[in-house]
Amino acid sequence: MSDLGAALRERLRALTFELGGPGTRERLEKLTPPRNEYGVDPYGFDVDFAIAAIAPFLWFYRKYFRVQVHGIERVPAEGRVLLVPNHSGQLPFDAAMLAISTLVEMDPPRFVRALVEKWVPRLPFVSSFYARLGQVVGTPENCRRLLAAEEAILVFPEGVRGLNKPFRQRYQLQDFGLGFMRLALEAEAPIVPVGIVGAEEQAPALVDLKFLARLLAIPAMPITPTPLALPLPTRYHIHFGEPMRFTGSADDEDAVLEEKVGEVKRAVQKLLDEGVRERKHVFW
Amino acid sequence: MPAPDHAAEAVTFPGMPRLVGITGISGNLGKALARLLHTEAHIVGIDRRPFREKPKDLPHYQVDIRKRKLGEVFRRHRIEALIHLGIMHDPRVPFSEAHSFNILGTQKLLELCVQHGVKKVVVLSSANVYGPLPDNSNFLTEETPLMAADRYSDVRDLIEVDMYAQSFLWKHPDIETVVLRPVHIVGPTVRNAPSNYLRLERPITVLGFDPMVQLIHMDDVCRAMVLALKPGVRGVYNVTGPGEIPLSTVLKELGRKPVRVPHFLVRGLLRRAFEARLTSFPPEEVDHLQFLCAVDGSRAARDLGYAPRHSLRETIRSVLPN
After folding, report:
1. Which residues of B touch A (CB under 8 A)?
2. Distance between CA B294 and CA B321 in Å, rounded?
3. Do A42 and B244 touch (CB under 8 A)?
4. Where are the alpha helices (DSSP H) in B6-151?
5. How many CB atoms lie within 10 A of CB A71?
């Protein structure tokens, strides 16, 4: 993946700067993760590659989903933080759009690492592509290490339960896992709840053929009216909430943690409800 | 472009043991270790192979570590510290022979250390014991379970030796036992699977996979082993080189032209090629071309005061002929 032709890479970089609008180049050049002599950080994040590779996603961001952000100033400019949004849309465009929003709308840009599902490293191309973009497998150990290094992390506590839910459950949050709360407590990291409006309608799944999914050993087999690769051009609104701080022991019983997780879940739900109410239309 | 001779810089510290026994001294790593340590301590060599070009003042015993004769080495010399590198990895040696040599040999050796009051035992294991698994964290700490045998049963030996050394560590609090788990060792004279792989003009890679890899120069491993002799140091330590880098970048640096094989074909193809002796690359090692097996070396940096001296580029290029 990293041997993307130099010319193509240069063109994509130019496209990124163009789509990002004036000042994008200067802003993105402020991204200086620790790099070795070969231009990658210890997790495999390659900034130069990433700036080129995000061009198509930035096109989706600007032209296709026409993303609008609300309250991005609530994302701390530095220091450890967990971003906790809803997850939907069959394909994780919501993660990509959110990650891009902190790159192009914040100054200096904030690079956010998404914790990806444990089966992602088994996928050819996807695994290496994600790694060069700095995404890491969502093990508690990785999360701990990144928070200790004062990084921003993107966690979807709904996981594939949210991503692959059917259309009738749009804007209804699925069960939240507890792991992210344990890690936030342990690292004393703030949590920024995020409501992503629009992604929930981008690929309406009518049914989920669970038996077929099991047969193919994939997490879900949603059937949508659009070809899966291309979601509908819904308009995205990304709403950032106030950072939430929790105190307590990471080793508390599940019931105690569930209460705290419930608070985050309600905050996300509130952002979603308000976002849906405020928007004029699904598509514009 | 000759690399600066880092190996020449001796490692020393107060409390350096006066007499150090080294098993597996006739191998390339053993020789490098002997060269490094020779100026600082007396050395006794133990290996069933002869030790060619051995310094005159270095007594060498050509014995099998499973045999009774090994006791004589300990009776004749007051060995204060033992560095055990004599673990066989050769995929061409019958498994049962290697297994017996590694497990029984290590056990015998450590028993003799107890009997003869050896103060320090350093066992060279490997970061491979964790295994390249798809859901590995990016940096494995020493507490990570040793799961390598999950997919690749031939590393069972190495895991058993490592575990045995760990239980020895707890059973004998009076002996300072150190288990070192270095990442892939490379170097001009190293002939292990990763070095041989990097010497291939057209190495096989897995299409669409490009894991981060960690390499360490043999000189740096030797320095870590000497530092492990420091009084007070005991425990299990990962030993890392100068950093992490995508496999594709390593191959590009070496000017290789990889043959990219889809993941669903690569194991079968390599298995056939290996059985037909067309390649020396063990098919089980494919996991290393596909998944992460990178470790966190910060504990060794802190307790041993170890830091690699060779840069990333020097380390990668060390497999090339001069």
Report:
1. 134-141, 206-212, 242-246, 248-249, 252-253, 262-263, 291-292, 311-313
2. 27
3. yes
4. 28-38, 70-76, 95-115
5. 15
Identify which of B68, B164, B174 has the alpha carbon closest to the alpha carbon of residue B118.
B174
Q: Compute how many other C-beta atoms are within 10 angstroms of the C-beta atom of residue A278.
A: 11
pLDDT tens-digit series, residues A64-109: 999 999 999 999 999 999 999 999 888 889 999 999 999 999 989 9
Query: Residue A114 carries which side chain, given as an amino acid letter?
Result: A
Residue B140 is given by DSSP the state: B
Residue A139 sits at φ, ψ, to 5 deg, of -90, 150
Task: Find the radius of gyration of the CA atoms of chain B.
Answer: 19
Residues in chain A closer than 8 A to B139 (CB atoms): 42, 141-142, 145
> Which residue in chain A has the smallest CA separation from B264?
A124
Instruction: Compute the C-alpha angle B163/B166/B167, nearest 5°.
Output: 90
CA angle A131–A137–A139, rounded 5-degree value: 155
pTM: 0.90
Sign of CA dihedral B300, B305, B306, B312: positive
Rounded distance between C-alpha atoms, residue A84 and residue B119, angstroms: 53
What confidence tens digit (pLDDT) does each residue in B149-207 have?
A: 766 666 888 899 999 999 999 999 999 999 999 999 999 999 888 999 999 999 999 99
C-alpha to C-alpha distance for B220 and B224, rounded to whole angstroms: 6
User: Cβ distance B48 to B62 under 8 Å?
Assistant: yes
